[in-house]
Amino acid sequence: MTFGVLVYAVFVALSYHYFFVRHRVEYVPDYRPSRVELATACKWSICGVLGNALLLLPIQLMIAHGWSRLYVGLAERGWPVLLLSSLGAVAVAETGVYWTHRMLHTDPFFRWFHRVHHQFREPNPAITYAVHDHRVSPSAALSPIHICLY
Questions:
Q1: For the whole prediction, is pTM greater than 0.70?
Q2: Around Cβ 139, how many Cβ atoms within 10 Å?
Q3: How many angstroms separate the CA atoms of 29 and 23, rounded?
Q4: CB distance 70 to 112 below 8 Å
């Protein structure tokens, strides 16, 4: 989990520096930086990443113990099955994420889960995973990509 938070922090820092500092005039000319808002966004995002990791841990453990249809060897099923299953998984996941996000914009889900994500005045990379720390996004627990594994 520490590695995931580190990867997240590095990519947020790099993308923030690239888009909001170095090329601000090109990409976000109206951006008004706020240290307090950025720190709050980082705090909520780290809570969201950790919460999502805890919710997905049982699914990952089931995969690790062989309780899924996930396969790692190409020789087992071949390239055509890998390609088709990958395309199918992406189609299912993206459709599920879209509809889950639409659901999060309706009451009571917006109030319960998603309001924190939209509380910030200025968009920035740190708010990507900003969700309530005690009410982690339901899309993690019901992640559509995991449906494809069973």
A1: no
A2: 20
A3: 9
A4: no
Give the tens place of pLDDT for each residue, 55-103. 778 878 887 888 877 776 778 788 888 888 888 878 887 887 788 788 8
Closest by CA to 97, choosing from 127, 140, 58, is 140
CA dihedral (74, 75, 79, 84) in degrees, to 10, reads -70
**Contact assessment for residue 21 and residue 104, using Cβ atoms and an 8 Å cutoff:** no
Q: How far is the C-alpha of 1 from the C-alpha of 43, rounded, in Å?
A: 16
Q: How far apart are CA 35 and CA 88, in angstroms?
A: 42
Q: Do 46 and 6 form a contact (C-beta atoms < 8 A)?
A: no
